[in-house]
Amino acid sequence: MSIIKKIFLFICLFGTAANTDGQTYKQYIKAADKDFVEENYYSAMKHYETAMTIEGEQPEVLYKYAEAARLLPSYVFADSAYTKVLASDSLSKYPLARYWLATVKKKQGKYAEAQALFQQFANERPKGVQDDYFQHAEQEVKELDWAVEAIEQPDENVTIKQLDTARINSTKSEFAPTQIGDKLYFSTMKLNKVLKKGLPEREFTQVMVTKVDSRKVDPAPFNDENRQTAHTAVNKSGTRLYYTLCDYVEETAVIRCEIYTRSIDPQGNFGPAVKLPASINKEGFTATEPSVGTDATSGEEWLYFVSDRPGGKGKMDIWASKIMKDSSYERPLNLTDINTPEDDITPFFHNASQTLYFSSEGRQGFGSYDIYKCELHDGQWLEVEHLPAPFNSSYGDSHFWMNPEQTKGYFASSRLGSHVFVPEYEACCNDIYEFQVQVIDLEVLTFNKKNLEPLPGVTLELFEMTKTGDVNIATTTNPDGNDFTQALRKGSKYHMLATRPGFLPIRDTVDLTLPANTQNRNLQRKLYLVPEPVDLHVTSFNKKNLNPLKGVEVRLVVDGQEIDFKKNEKGNDVDFVLERGKEYQLIGSKVAYFSDTAYIDLRTDITTTDVEQKLFLKPKEIEDFPPLVIYFDNDYPNPKTRKTTTEFSYKETWEAYMAKKDLFRQEYVTALEGFDSITAARRMDAFFEREVNNGYLSLEVFSENILEIMEDGGFKVELVIQGFTSPRASADYNYDLSQRRSDCLKNHFETWNGGVLMPYIKRGMLTMEVVGFGEKLAPQFISDRLDDERGSIYSVVASFERKVAIIGARRVAGN
Questions:
Q1: How does pLDDT run across 631-663, given as a tens digit for each residue?
Q2: Which candidate, 363, 335, 411, 361, places its Cα nearest to that of 161?
């Protein structure tokens, strides 16, 4: 029999003990036996008591009296009566007396006495008793070992208090507490009502509501005037209420309930009552104690409820029905992983932790109904766990409810200290208790790791770490500030995830099982978010003297592809912005210097915000320059002649050639469109900048190096020069042109810097050997057609062949 049914029966039958003045002893016994069969245990006790005042405490009557007291329940009186039976000479007639005495001892929390009685019963194995009782007694001996130890290990982070009598608890029974918003709904049996004309008033259950911080208590607006109303529950979105309407079955004390639902609008108003379908409210059976939960894995909403319908595992079982999107209900399923052969009642599904809380008399516990929990993980129920004291006691504990943060809640209990409806028997009833979980107030502050400034706009997700995974308990975004506060339960572990666009996510763990973290009520954590981009600052130096080196070209390469290029003509530093998850190659180059390469690996780096990279470029010696290549305009210098010498220096021809850059680009792209045109223009620009311009700059530095050698003395310098042409003209013409271009380079050394090298040339300290090959080395695919000016003059491939190269340079010891 469920705990609420017992209470209903007791209260509704209290006061119905017949007026038996003048009756004989046998009549009292007859009346008491009738009461017992009708489950009116209070009246049975009264009649047995009266009979014993007439004939004394006969063992037979004492045993019946003890049974009535146990089932009422009035454990103190049952304890006394069973004890007297055991001391009588008629014990053999009552083979279960010791078993039931052990049972009521356990329910009173007298574990040592209960264990000894169960053990004696199992050892003696009295005749006429089914083996199930012996097996259960042996199991109880083992479980009481656990109970003795477990009840002395309460959760020290939990405190409970009995809600006040003035507005909540009474001498009747209060149960099924549920908080919806700032309102506490609960069921009470303290009302009386005439339910049928001609019959006396009967106990009448209704739902009451009070604001959590108010002393005013009102009937809930959805109470039915003619039917008992109880057991409220609300879905996760707060848009639908579930509750029960119950009736006495005819004139008996049996209560049968049906589940109803109402919509809830945004203002908190309730819609009309809608009875759930026959698949839920099965005719002839009770459907009660609804709770609604959402499966976090599937997103499905489920209705949990209690019923005595066929197909269960025991007496009262917990059932579940999936709520479809059209608000229909699938055929209920029996929760076989949770139910036992005894009563399993008062389910409450906690959405935040995906946990079903319920009460049961069929599992290892402290005595009567205990509260248990079972987590739902990936659609499967895990192992059932017993809640520790002070949630559970040796008396009946049920109707658990807890807030989403798992810091506060309520439950109903008949434990010692609860109000009793009949003080003479210390019997009945449930009171509502509030529990608080001791919390630590966590303050989280977010900062930008790069500049250590407060970082607003962060989203903080907080998860409780459980054995089945992380459960999200809070997600908050602070658009204007960098502070977050959250109450956390002692004894739990948490981790948090802070995210913000443009920054790397950061995780941290808060372990409140460690004493160091729970010594104070307040705990602060600072989170430093790393910006997603990484700032790269590159500085370049002359490797020979470590002086800053201006004008270095710095290229950024990823997977062999150049993605960025920068050059600072006035300084030695450049900046880049890098993406994480990549490896970068950094190449620094400058005319007349060997390039330097560095690698920056950000493939797994999640902490760096800034990278400083230095490049050291080694100056070239003259032997390092060859091949030093300089380029010429088509047919220059001295176009359309067969001269093998020229009066022009290379600087003059270079300046004129560079001035034609736009013309060459225009002519080269004239026959192209779209992307091909853009690509061709970029290729021509790159040729002029990297080849024509840099070739001249290299020649200037090369000349300076020769001058240094000449001025130092002791060495001669020998140069080997080779001229090239494109194949546009005849071979003879191109031979003369290559000689003329080589002579142009010789003029450069003779006239450079005001002719400073000329004395060394005259003395034979600087010699130049010319090797001219005309067009002989030009690739065959270069156009030599005179009518194809674009291909033979303005193309990049043709321009590459119009050049002179210093192909050799060496120092030779002088005289």
A1: 999 999 999 999 999 999 999 999 999 999 999
A2: 411
